[in-house]
Amino acid sequence: MKKPLLATLAALVITGAGAAPAVAATPDTGTAPAARAVNLAGTVALSNCSGAVVRMPDSAADDPALALTNGHCLESGFPGPGEVVVDRASTRSFGLLNAAGTRVATLRANKIAYATMTGTDAAVYQLTRTYAQIKSSYGIDALTLNDTRPAAGTAISVVSGYWKRVYTCSIDGFAHQLREGDWTWTDSVRYTPACDTVGGTSGSPVVDHSTGRVVAVNNTGNESGGRCTLNNPCEVDASGNVTVRQGVNYAQQTYPFAACFGLDSKLDLYASGCTLPKP
Questions:
Q1: Pick from 44, 91, 119, 218: CA 20 to 30 A from residue 238's CA?
Q2: What is the pTM of this model?
Q3: Average pLDDT, whole number, for the chain?
Q4: 194-212 as b/e, with b when 16 or more CB fall inside 10 Å?
Q5: How far apart are CA 231 and CA 5, in angstroms?
Q6: Residue 24 region, left (φ>0) first, then alpha (ψ -120 to 50), else beta?
Q7: Which of 134, 151, 152, 154 is closest to 142 using CA atoms?
């Protein structure tokens, strides 16, 4: 999954908290689809990762704003296998970007609402400001999470607030299970080669061109052809067969979050339709 960018630069190990892998080794088989005006507005830069201010489809303007990144981007380090973090105090800061990638504000969290690396690799922070306050002060809207599963072939962009860069490609398919070191993720998004994400892109929102909504959060890639090791995730099908795709990058789907956050951005893991892993 890759570890924090600072650690990556220092030790050249994972790409964790910071990223998706280096360069895709698989040759591209076609031109990436044209992007639908995807820009950096609403994305955030963390100390070692990317992320975005996000809202659920039914969020209200006066709800506390939420920020999405990877579970492996937590300031406390990687959650262990089976660990789920809920309502943990945090004062983490996020650099809010406008469409051009200019940092216009520093937003601050008051808690980690939810984070895990089990089943998915995602973290949702609750911020100290509402969606309306952010819009009024900076003219920036949150990105909306889609509440339905994306399809193979969907044109997407991976939008990195850390690097202020947009990668454009398509969803190549899905991994029944994606295993990396001690962690296993389910129904992971596999990109076509054009999204050759690098360290620091971990936590980037993956935006569907047709809807402008977030369908996944960028998290890892197989860097050197290793089999199910750190920085070298492998795909495991329903029969247990393992496939290694060197240079291919992945993301974790975000539609399950829509059923788990309600009024006032409150998390309810026992709400109808909420399937996120529980503590």
A1: 218
A2: 0.89
A3: 90
A4: bbbbbbbbbbbbbbbbeee
A5: 13
A6: beta
A7: 134
